[in-house]
Amino acid sequence: MMSKKSPQLRFEGFTDDWEQRKLGDEFKKVNERNNGSFGREHWISVANMYFQDPEKVQSNNINTRTYVMRIGDMAFEGNKSSKFKYGRFVVNDIGNGVVSELFPIYRHNNEYDNSYWKNAIQIERIMAPIFAKAITSSGVSSNKLDNNHFLNQKICIPPLKEQKKIGSFFKQLDDTIALHQRKLDLLKEQKKGYLQKMFPKNGAKVPELRFAGFADDWEERKLAELATMNARIGWQNLRTSEFLDEGDYILITGTDFKDGEIDYSNIHYVEKERFDQDKKIQVQDGSILITKDGTLGKVAYVKNLPGPATLNAGVFNVRVINSDETDSKYLFHYLKAPFLLKFADEQSTGGTIKHLNQNVLVKFPVPLPGLDEQKRIANLLESMDNLIAANQRKLDLLKEQKKGFLQKMFV
Prior knowledge:
Blueprint (H helix, E strand, L loop, with lengths): L3 E2 L12 E5 H4 E4 L13 E2 L4 E2 L14 E4 L4 E4 L10 E4 L5 E4 L4 E4 L5 H7 L3 H11 E3 L5 E3 L1 H5 L2 E4 L2 H38 L21 E4 H4 E4 L18 E4 L4 E2 L2 E2 L5 E3 L1 H5 L5 E2 L4 E4 L7 E3 L7 E3 L3 E6 L7 H9 L2 H9 L10 H4 L3 E4 L2 H38 L3
Parallel strand pairs: 16-23
Antiparallel strand pairs: 1-2, 2-13, 3-10, 4-5, 6-9, 7-8, 7-10, 11-12, 14-25, 15-24, 16-19, 17-18, 20-23, 21-22, 21-24
């Protein structure tokens, strides 16, 4: 007897159970070869589902060593990841083209809604049990799909009318997510443009882009002339057993950095004697922190500090020497920009830097206008960061909402 189920969340007017069918009733494996109809401009990048730049298509066998992938077809990509334990299917929603013969192609037997299947076929809770019975391993990072075992597995499918309703809903949601992603990318590009134009380069005395009313030449100063920088030295290093879950003295580590600030939600603490050990690494509001190990060059500006705090190893405490000369937020934004890591990389020997050395940091050149201009620049960049963060939160919320709908609208 055919098993039937229904999802937790449905559109009004749909009450019938979904039918559980064999995948072989819905799909067939196809090996359609290119007969010359498709050229390099039709080469599909399966992982992200877009047409590859023809100039970057390397294959000389586009006619014989490729499969045709048509709208609605789905290709199995066997690369394992944290999100997809066994690999995943990718549905073609961009147009007819060709893919490498490494990707098995499956085509619908019945009428279908492409937007519905694009989402349904990537739900891990549905597909992982199917793949678990249909995968034959072919390497450490990639899996191979056994066609017969796969097509013999079952999946719950709604009628076409409900597929279209669900598909339309997710198409609109995906379009909204894509719109916000483009907006976020544009904001990041705008900020990148400001960073390129608002600071002098190539020995110039003034930047290309400037606020009205400012005409004086900028100075170039070494970071050591503008700020002190200190870190926990070797003999002071803390053992993990000294990290406390609660206490009066906060311990800030490089893992507490988030979007240019300190995330206090999972902070650790230390005993008073460890806090008192070195006043130079005690942190205050207005301190600028820079990671020197692990993920290099992450920068955070300390504000709203909930209590006395010190640093773990691997983080520099940077404090402005003279606030009448240097605005701490201006210095923070300049250190957070890509200039610091570029400079450190140029100063390093033996390849990629693995440690941000203080001897390099003290020599880092900082372009310095007058204090009022510094504050105007810092305010603009902070406004850009706030706008980027707000759009990122909105995008993250939309993605979380989609995740919730995927859990409730499919069986």
